From TrEMBL:
Annotated InterPro entries: HDOD, RNase_Y/CdgJ
SUPFAM superfamilies per the UniProt record, alphabetical: HD-domain/PDEase-like (SSF109604)
Pfam families: HDOD (PF08668)
The name this protein goes by in its record: HDOD domain-containing protein
Length: 274
């Protein structure tokens, strides 16, 4: 890994007190929706982002969500934690995704699409695993923020963007410029912030799931398939879908479940113009 990226990770500030409090409440088996709501209400930025997400067409609640309590009740504690964490991280990391040819808003949108697809797909396979994978899918592209920053500093953004636009293997382009893939960078970021080993390792191997340790191989493969279907340069293109379905078949997944999830995502994108 380039020393400049290593230094960027080491210099990352700690997560906010609100995020630490959210994690504390989430880990407390006695805590409930009202406890999580009280914590979130102290942070106006998280409140604004949570309500914006709740009223997004991705979740299709069918009515306007006007307060935190409603949002937390509808999302549930796990999904609320994921959304709060994801938005806080993007703010903390000062997102500029220009080298990838997208805006910071589009980057957040694709992260949400990946998480939503994972939830709809794996929710039919194993709900407990789906809960773990939802958070990982939502955050697995975080390393791209630091890679983009490094590419800009090295004044390589024009050539990098040109290669990303044409590539069917973003990890390969990343490796050619910074020596690592975004999955590896993301894993280092969350290791720096003290996330549990299973979470860190499933993301670390999401670009090369065949190399993953047995205990996280299934998770890494699921993340890999979702990011294959929804790469940030051409999400749910015909080619991306075909690649993802082929990888799912080769990994032994039931085709019907993942095809249904992809169809759901295509419907959402078409209806809402995402």
């Amino acid at each position: 890994m380039k020393s400049s990226i290593v230094e960027s990770i080491k210099s990352l500030p700690p997560l906010s007190k609100t995020i630490a409090d959210i994690d504390r409440v989430f880990a407390d088996k006695e805590a409930g929706v009202s406890d999580l709501t009280k914590v979130i209400e102290h942070d106006p930025m998280i409140v604004a982002n949570l309500l914006k997400t709740a009223n997004s067409p991705l979740y299709g609640f069918g009515r306007e969500i006007k307060n935190v309590g409603q949002a937390v009740s509808l999302f549930g504690m796990s999904m609320t934690r994921t959304i709060a964490l994801g938005n806080a991280l993007r703010k903390l990391l000062n997102v500029d995704m220009q080298p990838y040819g997208i805006t910071s808003e589009r980057f957040a949108e694709i992260s949400s699409l990946q998480a939503t697809m994972m939830n709809r797909w794996y929710g039919k396979i194993d709900k407990k695993k789906a809960e773990k994978l939802y958070l990982a899918a939502f955050l697995q592209e975080t390393g791209k923020i630091l890679i983009a920053s490094d590419v800009i500093k090295e004044d390589e953004d024009v050539s990098f963007k040109s290669e990303i636009e044409m590539s069917n293997n973003l990890a390969q382009v990343e490796k050619s410029y910074v020596g690592v893939t975004s999955a590896e960078v993301t894993a280092e970021v969350f290791e720096h912030w003290g996330f549990d080993k299973e979470f860190v390792e499933m993301i670390r191997f999401a670009d090369e799931p065949a190399s993953a340790p047995d205990e996280v191989k299934e998770y890494a493969m699921a993340l890999h398939i979702v990011k294959t279907a929804l790469p940030i340069n051409k999400p749910l293109s015909e080619q991306a879908i075909n690649f993802a379905l082929r990888k799912a078949r080769d990994a032994g997944y039931n085709h019907e479940a993942i095809e249904d999830a992809i169809d759901d995502m295509l419907d959402i994108i078409e209806e809402e113009g995402l």
